[in-house]
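_Full entry_
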Amino acid sequence: MADTSHGPASFWTQADALLRKNLTFQKRNIKQNIRLVSFPILLCLLLVLVQTLVNHELDKPENRCGCICIDTDGDGKCEKVCALKYSTLEQGASCPIPDPPQWPPLLQVPAPNHRAVISSVIPYTDLPNESCKRTGSCPVTMLFTGKNQTLGEVLAGNMFRSNFTLNSSDTLDNLASSVSGSESMPENSNFLDPAFYSDLPIYNVQSQCSQNPISSVPINISSIQMQQEVRCVQGLHLWRNSSSEVNSELYKGYKKGNSERKINEILAAYDFSNSNGNNFNVSIWYNSTFKNDTGSGPIALLRLPRLVNLASNAYLEFLQGSGTDMLFEFVKEMPKPESKLRLDFSSLLGTLFFTWVILQLFPVVLTSLVYEKQQKLRIMMKMHGLGDGPYWMISYTYFLTVSSIYMLCFVIFGSLIGLKFFTMNEYSIQFIFYFIYINLQISLAFLVAAMFSDVKTSTVIGYIFVFGSGLLGGFLFQFFVQDTSFPRGWIIVLELYPGFSLYRGLYEFAQYAFNGNYMGTDGMRWGDLSDSNNGMREVFIIMVVEWFLVLLFAYYVDQAVSSGTGKGTFFCLQRFRKKKLSSFKMRSLRRQGSKVSIEMEKPDVGQEREKVEKLLLDSDTTHAVICDNLKKVYSGRDGNPEKFAVRGLSLALSRGECFGMLGPNGAGKTSFINMMIGLTKSTSGTAYVQGLDIQTQMDEIYTSMGVCPQHDLLWETLTGREHLLFYGRLKNLKGSALIQAVEESLKSVNLFYGGVADKQAGKYSGGMKRRLSVAISLIGDPKVVYMDEPSTGLDPASRNNLWNVVKRAKQDRAIILTTHSMEEAEVLCDRLGVFVDGSLQCIGNPKELKARYGGSYVFTMTTSSNHEEEVENLVRRLSPNANKIYYLSGTQKFELPKQEVRIADVFESVENAKQRFTVFAWGLADTTLEDVFIKVALEAQASNVLT
């Protein structure tokens, strides 16, 4: 591991390292990528299959325009002729109609049980009584108002005939000259009005009906003759004093306020305003409740011409007398050629389905980001020198590339199989729309990822967003878009939600494709964006603005709370702090102003604290790590008190020194390491690494730091070699130096031979992963290395090999190592510190600690139970101050102070004792490091209990 770096890696070197790693990772997940791309392809194939089946049904003879074989030129040979007159009503829609039929103009007449009557909501006494609904004899009501009531009454009276008789020989002409209507909803049709082929009657509105109000008359529709029921209904015209009264009555009457919610509809209403003999000014209220499902507007407008004609005729009769009439004979559709029955399912169903297709990229990006966060891979990369700028640039570009390829495959495949949704609309508009949205979606994923730390939770939320957005768009948002009375401003507000802006754009594509395919025109073109009914332009503006705002906010949140320790909400205001060694003096001066109270501190620990204070005052640069009264306190929860994980640690480490931290579980060792590597923030105090403050300069510290965490943080699909290549590039290793460093690292931890280096890390054993983590921490010649229990799970041979690696590595760097192995601590560490309950209890090299806390021999002897007292007397003669520390079934263990005992005397006493009684076993041992550790830990715990 004799690799040498050349300073911190540049922005582009870091970006290159991350890009190479991502490409390798992507290559290993090729099956997952195929599954991802196959979803929209399968959906397109499904739509084509459904389209084929539907077209097959529509092409059947019974669904085509009716045909007959006739001899057109008298040569005895028949020719096939297809026309409307040979067709059924179902077939007529596809027939050529060069001369559409004429239909009498009709009113939209309320059904008998919906007509306005007296109620608690509408208390006008001139309305009929509610009892008429039981007999079906309720009149239809028109409301009138204006400045001149006399004129209004005259005009209202001129609208309804006193009597009218239908002539069965020419029914349609008779209806055209009468005031007729239907409760049937109008439709868009070239040759049929549903009023004449439904089971509902035609209503003839008169001022007074005769004794036989119901009749049945024949009506010819092309070659088909039908019987149509015609009913007389009384027309009631009522005066109101103002337009506001009319408005109120219409509003209150539409839905009754009680629980029965009965409908009380008015036929129409007129405001003649300031009309007189020289001026005709009229406003008309009409029922526009019924909407066209295609979104082309209120189809009740087809019933409106008769209302205008009634007012015009009434005014003309007022001026010219009763013999004058403005005849309104018919309404007529435009001619049309023969049309092939086709339903474009990609346009009808595509808005919802394609919304799901595009949105499914969101949980893919989100879970990838949260996975790196959950597995601590993001912070692991950062701790080895990867800056936030390269990470954001490469990650964003990476997801944008994947999303773009996904969308290109989707659009290209959909176009190749002939889906009108893609082929009818201009591709440049589609490209810009999809490009902007996937950028917005990726930015949104970065923002949402900052709020989650668990992949399963984020996956659930991601797919709720996918399906919820599609369903809400299809069943709620689309209804508002099609409702022309719904305020456009509120539509824009709804489109601020990214799922709805996507849905609106796809909806516009679908409408233009469907109408273009149906009418034989083009789909959406750039010129269509200026259409007031086209919402694509506002969607473009909303998505572009949201893209930049969401991206900036996501980066801010990431810097504030998600990047390792987080920089705080107002980190932007902290850029003007002094960074280098001058901060040592500033820190020490602040410390001089406040006295630190230390209770019952051991002399060696106190000496270390004094050493730290002196180093801070002298701005010393020879020590790689200086901890200055570092503390970590976890706040209490659920009624529990605060937890002191680290209590005022002061420590100084020089270059070339390996410092070992010993302590029982929960002593605070890992909390200390986490503060030093930036995983958590200290509650108070600070530490300096290479002269840089861990509170404010962790980004600079990361460039010269190596970490072997307690748990292995690895990509399961990357090999050991690929891990080291990635982290080596982050440490600015390039070319042959990088290759050599990687090979030496693999050899040093015994992962080079047997193909192990090129095996995916997910297939490594626990010990192999541990060795790889150690190699990662040391590659690139970091100046400070943290190893949290590096030999955990290793066999004796591998552990011994790892110790040799660490020994060689500590020559010019500081290493902080935590371990539970006393043997490892004694072999590797130049100095040791025993941690108990968050406090440093003692510090020194292994020999000093054993001399200081272990100044005694341990004497052990095993005899029969009859001679136990003789053994104890023997020990007392050797050392009056001996202390029995163990006794069980004849085996006794004593501590003998070294200053009272000579080893030769012990051997002589044992030989004499063997002559008097049987000695099964005996032994004399010096104090071990484990004994020191146990003694210090027990004393500290006893002291904490007393205090």
